[in-house]
What we know:
The complex is a heterodimer.
Chain A: E1 2-6, H1 10-22, E2 26-30, H2 33-42, E3 47-51, H3 59-68, E4 75-79, H4 84-93, E5 97-100, H5 105-119, E6 127-129, E7 132-135, E8 140-143, E9 146-148, H6 152-163, E10 168-169, H7 171-178, H8 187-201, E11 210-213, E12 217-220, E13 224-225
Parallel strand pairs in A: 1-2, 1-3, 3-4, 4-5
Antiparallel strand pairs in A: 6-7, 6-13, 7-8, 8-9, 10-12, 11-12
Helix pairs in contact in A: 2-3, 6-8
Chain B: H1 6-55, E1 56-58, E2 64-66, H2 73-76, E3 82-88, E4 93-96, E5 116-122, E6 128-139, E7 145-155, H3 157-207, H4 220-266, H5 268-271, H6 276-298, E8 310-311, H7 312-326, E9 333-338, E10 343-344, H8 348-365, E11 369-377, E12 386-393, H9 400-407, H10 423-433, E13 437-442, E14 448-454
Parallel strand pairs in B: 9-11
Antiparallel strand pairs in B: 1-2, 3-4, 3-7, 5-6, 6-7, 8-10, 11-12, 12-14, 13-14
Amino acid sequence: xxxxxxxxxxxxRDSVVEQLRQAGFNVDAAADGEEGLYCAREYALDLxxxxxxxxxxxxxxxxxxxxxxxxxxxxxxLTARDKWxxxxxxxxxxxxxxxxxxxxxxxxLARMQALLxxxxxxxxxxxxxxxxxxxxxxxxVTVNARRVDLTSFEYRILEYLIHRAGEVISKGExxxxxxxxxxxxxxxxxxxFIGRLRRKLDPDDSIKPIETLRGRGYRFALQRESAA
Amino acid sequence: MGPRSLSTRxxxxxxILLIVFFGITIAALDFAFRRVTEQAMHDRLEAQMLxxxxxxxxxxxxxxxxxxxxxxxxxKNPGSGLYGEILRSDGYPSWRSNSLTGTGLDFAVQLPSGQxxxxxxxxxxxxxxxxxxxSIAWEFDNGxxxxxxxxxxxxxxxxxxxxxxFRGQLFGWxxxxxxxxxxxxxxxxxxxxxxxxxxxxxxxxxxxGRMTELGAGYPRELLGVTTNLNALLxxxxxxxxxxxxxxxxxxxxxxxxxAVMRNLLSGVPGRDLPIGKQLDEQVGRMDDIVKYQLKRxxxxxxxxxxxxxIDVRSALEPLRAALLKVYADRNIDCExxxxxxxxxxxxxxxxxxxxxNLLDNAFKWSRGKVxxxxxxxxxxxxxxxxxxxxxxxxxxGIPVDERAHVLERGARxxxxxxxxxxxxxxxRELAQLNGGTIAIxxxxxGGAFIEIRFPAT
Lengths: 228, 457
């Protein structure tokens, strides 16, 4: 998942970026509103975290511009003023949730996961597709209630595919969403990871969770389960 | 009795003055008129007396009679109102005028020679007459001198009638004069006080929020008042905005380091600190104190002049929409019941803070249903309606023994009540700063019932 954080306070930005990376996110950071707008236009994002009190272009304006340009991914606002008027205006401008400073990182993570889940069309915290279940809160993956051990990168690919289960996702999109810019973007590595995922999730080749559509990409093929 | 208007006071004072002045004038005129008419009557009776004496002639029986051709006509006619009598000192009634017939008037007079008497008598029917008697010695042709008492009298009724007519005219004219004077005074006052009434009207408009300051074109004497009042109104609005902005900046510059601290504590180096949890708790306390005190300080604290009444629906609908968005996962049914024409007289930000905190708490604790109701509180003696705001949920509610605790003065920052956070303390503070009250009860929905009442003012 690729997220953008726009926060002018460097120590806070650095600390959040570091923790988000550790939590498995591909993170872009911007220090002011204009830089934030640039990043939001340039990168394919899954979520943006925007501080309301930004230099150059304030958070409210940034969100309005993003929405006006058709960016539909979830936006979470951070606010130090903690005024209801600000929260209401932020949400009216197009944000989806707010968090008052100072916040616990766990709280931020939980809100982000809930927003990502909702944007993928999931109503329940645990994402279930057929025999496969993925809990973003614990990063635990089970197949038929059997726990599957995945590496960090394998998990990130699977999480992205399951989030958008049923949709075709190209190799390029996967690379862009999951790799940080300075990583090696060889599309062959994606193929290698998909192969490993298939073996771990489906060792006897019975449920066929990940479909390859030649020349187009991959699709998580198991049916979503919306029941609790 | 309350203070009366300037024009009422002035008119009342002038009326009292006029009544006193006119009263004295009327009394003086009345006195003078009575003296003059009394004197005229006395002179008339003296003249009649002299005429009677000079007309007198001796008769055969040793008495005196007025010669008929020299006798005043009125004395000959019964009921004429002028009476006469000549009485000899031994009691022999020498002559009685015809006009005395049937009047029952008795002069009953005994006077030593040369004396006179002026007095009031009554006829048989009780009506008053003025009578003059005079005793004279008459020397007859045969050389005998006898004493006679001459009396003349005149009815007082015509005099009284004249006096009453005079008084009627006097009161009539002076009354008319007073009405004219008061009328012109009222008219002048109206014209003179027009600018003051305009100020009064414009201040009402400002209070109602339809104007933001007083208009131009006031007379020179009032310009000082109006320009200064406008400056005060503008200053007050600007001061609140500036103040809030400063508080916002303060919150921002204070909370950002707190946020950094909190994140460092949960990050890689901080996670391993043994005192990390304690430090994090302290960060939380500092945050609560700042949040509580800043919200309290940012409250407008009542009706800002020149601010329009807030349409409650327009303030609450966006809050509801915002919270539904934030709590989208929870599928909460949030019902908003707002009476028509429901307004809040005060600051929009204060209302939004109160309602926002209450609704947020309700959403937090609800199992699926939240209801917010708003009704005006009417009071015929007040200019502006109050507002009753109720927020209910179907959550666990607030236990009875904790309710008072939540509402106690002085935020319970150190011993927060069962996850209500500082929300309710802030709500209580804001409500009280706006003259309102807060009450906690149990809702028919099953959870908390929180009622805020802003009284009519």
